[in-house]
Amino acid sequence: MKKLKSQKSTFGKKVLDGAFRTMCERLVASNNPNLFLLNYDLKRLSVVSLFVVPKQFFVREIIEVRKPLAVTARRAGWIGCNILLNQIPAPGKIFIVKNGQPQPKELVLAQWKKTLFLRDEAVEARGWLIEVMKCVELIGKPEFELNDVYAFEGRLSQLYPNNRHVKQKIRQQLQVLRDHGYLDFVSRGYYRLRTQD
Questions:
Q1: Which of 48, 75, 119, 135 is most buried by a 10 A CB count?
Q2: 89-121, pLDDT tens digit by residue?
Q3: Which pTM was predicted?
Q4: Which CATH architecture has domain 121-197?
C-alpha cells in the first residue's frame, strides 16, 4: 500500500495529513501505507525529487495533532494532524530521484532493505529504536561511544517519562540495532555505523 503527496515547493519540516484519529489507528495496523513525497517543476514538466518514507517509520512520535476546527467551520471540531518529517531519521527518507537525478536502483533497494527489521517490532519498540537511531545520527560521526548516546538521556526521558531506566534501554536498543546489522560493535562501549553495501 502506498500514499503519494506532491507539490511544487520543497517539503519542509512537516506535511499536512488527514484525521488524527485515523492516523493513530493506522499506526498499529498492518495496512499502514508507505508515504511517497514528490516535488515537481511544472515549467519543465519534470520531477525534482521523489522520496519514500517506509511505513515502519510511522510511529506516534512523528505525528503532530492539530487544533480542532473552529465551531464556525463546516466540520467543526474535526482534528487533523501533521507528519513531522524533521523527526524521521535519514534512513527513513529513501530518495528515488534527488536533485532531478534518478538514484541507482541498487542503492535504493539496499536502503529499503536496511530497516525492514523495524516492521517486526511492536509500535512502542519501534519508537524507541527510531529515537536511538536519531540520537546516533545527531552525534554526526560514523564511530561513536556509548557515552555519546547517553548524552541524549534527558531528551529520551522527556519522550518516555514512564521509563526509569533510560540508560539500560539505550544499551538494549543499540544491541538490537547491532543484531540487525544497522551498526557494528567495535569494542566495549564503542560502535560504528555500518556503511551501505
A1: 135
A2: 999 999 999 999 999 999 999 999 999 999 998
A3: 0.86
A4: Orthogonal Bundle (1.10)
